Recover the amino acids of this structure.
């Protein structure tokens, strides 16, 4: 079945550093790749997404890159701040395009 | 605009019992998805409903079931509860296409 692998599972950085989280997906039919941020006690919230016809997308300090050939996509956060501390999930659409399959998450800790 | 509402937020059950969780999607959203979140396993897809029809189902046993009503509200049911069913159950709504999922805050189920 469809599978999304996410690395690393935990990431600790100093405030101001960059953070990179990587994901790989198994289904070549996947065409939508969102990233979600989950803060303690809350549901996940979309922070950025990318579709298969685009290689890179940026929104202020956050960027996502997609390599369809290698089935890799990555989240890049620059100039990290303590409020970036949260669990981040990547996801990819299933073959039918009717569901999102999530990675297991990365716990990002930004220390000041 | 009201967000996704899940009830109850917390509940405790004993093994063998059954439970029903409710989800009210954002007004105008016709798709509702359910996910199980446990530590270390991330978000695992349960099922997705669109206009009262189940369009997709994850790899969970038949004890997990769901339905969607004509007003798009959805319920999921877990019968014969097991200790391993303890988790945060998240509901997400969407207009019905491949795009952003809007998550509720979840129903935290503890099975004793």
């Amino acid at each position: 079945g469809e599978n999304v692998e996410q690395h690393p599972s935990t990431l600790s950085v100093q405030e101001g550093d960059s953070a990179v989280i990587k994901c790989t997906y198994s289904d070549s039919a996947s065409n939508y790749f969102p990233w979600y941020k989950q803060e303690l006690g809350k549901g996940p919230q979309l922070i950025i997404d990318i579709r298969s016809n685009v290689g890179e997308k940026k929104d202020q300090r956050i960027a996502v890159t997609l390599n369809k050939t290698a089935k890799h996509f990555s989240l890049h956060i620059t100039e990290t701040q303590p409020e970036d501390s949260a669990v981040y999930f990547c996801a990819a659409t299933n073959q039918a395009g009717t569901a999102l399959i999530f990675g297991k998450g990365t716990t990002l800790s930004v220390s000041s | 605009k009201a967000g996704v509402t899940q009830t109850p937020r917390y509940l405790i059950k004993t093994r063998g019992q059954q439970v029903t969780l409710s989800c009210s999607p954002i007004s105008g959203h016709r798709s509702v998805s359910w996910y199980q979140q446990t530590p270390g396993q991330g978000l695992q897809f349960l099922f997705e409903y669109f206009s009262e029809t189940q369009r997709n189902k994850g790899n969970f046993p038949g004890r997990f079931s769901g339905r969607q009503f004509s007003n798009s509200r959805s319920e999921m049911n877990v019968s014969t509860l097991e200790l391993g069913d303890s988790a945060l159950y998240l509901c997400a709504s969407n207009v019905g296409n491949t795009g952003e999922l809007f998550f509720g805050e979840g129903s935290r189920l503890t099975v004793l």
Q: What stands out?
A: The interface with chain B takes residues 1, 6, 31-32, 34, 36, 41-46, 49, 89, 93-94, 96-105 of chain A (CB under 8 Å). The longest strand of chain A covers residues 86-93.
